[in-house]
Amino acid sequence: VTIDGRDIKSALYLNALIDCDSEARSRVDEETAAETEKNETSEETKTSEETDYYSKTLDGLSFAEYVKNKAIERCKEYVFYQKLVDDKVISLTDDEKSEAEHSAEYYWTNYGYSYLYEANGVSLETYKNAFLYSYYSNAYFKSLYGEGGEKEVAKKDIKAHMLDNYALAYTLSATYEDGSTDEEKEALKTKLEGYAKRLKDGEEFEKIYMEFNGLTEEDHTHTEKEDGPKDEHATLLADKDSNSQLGSEDFDEVYEMKVGNTKIIESEDGTGLTLYMRLDINSDAYYLTYLTDTILYELKEEEFDDFVAGKTEKYTVEENGFAINRFDV
Description:
Layout: E1 2-3, E2 6-7, H1 10-38, E3 57-58, E4 61-62, H2 63-86, H3 94-110, H4 113-118, H5 124-145, H6 155-165, E5 166-175, H7 182-200, H8 205-212, E6 235-239, E7 247-248, H9 251-256, E8 262-266, E9 272-279, H10 286-312, E10 317-318, H11 321-325
Parallel strand pairs: 6-7
Antiparallel strand pairs: 1-2, 1-10, 3-4, 5-6, 5-9, 8-9
């Protein structure tokens, strides 16, 4: 494949094809699950092994054609970022390059990627090369929307998004024992209510945490990091439907609580209880710093993707029929 005058090696194209195939399968799975939930059917969602992906259509295209188009788009992005690197618009530090390499090797070895990619003619070196482009993308994103960038997002907007979409709390979670009776479940709730009262009365959470977990001073040692949170026991929460790993099924209820209030919430699957005490996320500057990159993506990722697509849509594409067609999705 030649894109805007630059050759894309067949192995790199195939890497993009495999990546886009995986992403397309995930999209089919998500849409199938959403449709199943919408129809309130009692049928179990099919596993990936049972789904005939090639019979599906995405955006009006056959599954295979959709994946191939996405792979070409991905290769256009490779060219776009390579041009930015060549023109010294973006660069990576040695530490970032090392991190990218180690991360790629980790996925290759520990997630079984080697079996998938090597079986289709993609070597570890090609995979690492492709993986590096995600770091170039992030570098360009931050150069636009980060501090001092051409499209810099104001600090006040980042903070407002944090206050609207994240919560900070102390948490104590307990799971019901197998076969627990209603009386035993009520006893667990009463125990947590006792902890809640002690917290409301001003007792330090760490003392209650140690008691709850059966820890002694010797068992529970921790060192505060200069660049870490003031209180390592505080837990960050986000909406369960967010892309954040902080997603919690209890977020909405915790978010509605006033700072300093407590609440005991049963898990959605009815397997246990969690005691929450809402904290002031504004009281520790660490969280704004910690969440800034995540929030920038939440605010601007779609705009960024459209911006890059606008830059690459006019790239010319010359396809070598053999190089393209030798690979099956």
